[in-house]
Amino acid sequence: MKRILIAEDEEILRMLIMDTLEDEDYAVDEAQDGEEAIELLQKNKYDLLILDYMMPIVTGLEVIETVRRDMGDHQQKILMLSAKSQSFEQEKALKTGADYFMAKPFSPLALLAKVEEIFNEN
């Protein structure tokens, strides 16, 4: 079973993503901000991180920097979600180490299709 960590500060969106992925038998953990995401990453291994770009305390970009620099895990896939969908923000996320970028708003089915596409690449 694939393990996914969702870090999203909007509770309703986080719950919607979790429900969508759990319905497809993914094991999903949640974090309400980047700091909590880093704590979970220090304890658990995940196949995919789904990170919000703008979160309080520690941003999604800072989580990516920590994962790629301090945790040395370049095999872990990272999908960045953001309402900031301008090309320079997408480029910044990808240069920081995100593997994929998805603009908000999105449908849960579009997110599920993206997750399945990511796992089918391997």
Automatic annotation (TrEMBL):
Q: What is this protein called?
A: Response regulator
The residue ranges of the Response regulatory domain are 3-119
Taxonomic path: Bacteria, Bacillati, Bacillota, Bacilli, Bacillales
Q: Does the keyword Phosphoprotein apply?
A: yes
4-aspartylphosphate found at:
D52
Check the record and name the Gene3D superfamilies matching this protein.
3.40.50.2300
Per the UniProt record, the source organism is Niallia nealsonii
List, alphabetically, the CDD domains matched: REC_OmpR
Keyword tags: Phosphoprotein
Keyword check for GTP-binding: no
- Name the Gene Ontology biological process terms: phosphorelay signal transduction system
Q: Which InterPro entries match?
A: Bact_response_regulator, CheY-like_superfamily, Sig_transdc_resp-reg_receiver
The family database entries (Pfam families) matched by this protein are listed as:
Response_reg (PF00072)
